[in-house]
Amino acid sequence: MPRRFLCWFLTMMLFAGAAAGQGPQAAKIRQQVGKIGVLGNITVSIAGGPEYYGSISRIGADDFSVNEVDQRREIVIRYREVRRVREGYGATRNIRGQRIHPRTKLIVTLAVVGGLLAVVFIAVASDKS
Fold first, then answer.
1. Do residues 68 and 74 touch, judged by C-beta distance below 8 A?
2. Confidence class of residue 49 from pLDDT cuts 50, 70 and 90?
3. CA distances for 39 relative to 29, 46, 102, 118, 122, angstroms
4. How far apart are CA 36 and CA 47, in angstroms?
5. CA–CA separation, 98 vs 43, rounded Å?
6. Which residue has the higher pLDDT, 114 or 99?
7. Is 40 a residue whose pLDDT tops 60?
């Protein structure tokens, strides 16, 4: 009886320790990194820190490695430190030197084209000839 209880107790402590090591946010990040896969382009936002851009070189149980394109070195990142990840990274930079999200680039382009079309339509509508 005590031996069975001891085995049960140790098994529960083992699972509790593994669950405490990675929270739900870390598990979600790990799943997203796994979905992108090794050699996939990724943007990683660190909680309270910088963003890293590069390709995934290794995926582990507690961390993953990114070959950072701007710093030209491999960076090991723990899942629990990550705020969010996204596939790919912007190729151009803004005035502050940060990469631009591809969706932001599309939105700005559509706004500029829409503004130019509005100016043309207003000019045609106000033409009295």
1. yes
2. confident
3. 17, 20, 20, 44, 50
4. 20
5. 12
6. 114
7. yes
Is residue 37 within 8 A of residue 56, CB to CB? The reply is yes
| Residue with tokens 């049960």, as numbered in its chain | 8
SS3 label, residue 83: strand
pLDDT, greater one: 15 or 71:
71
Whole-number pLDDT of residue 5: 62
The larger pLDDT score, comparing residue 16 to residue 60, is at: 60
Backbone angles phi, psi at 59, to 5 degrees: -120, 120
Q: Are 33 and 59 in contact (CB under 8 A)?
A: yes
For residues 69 and 73, give the distance between their C-alpha atoms in angstroms, rounded to a whole number: 7
Rounded Cα gap, residues 11 and 59, in angstroms? 26
Contact of 17 with 74, CB cutoff 8 Å: no
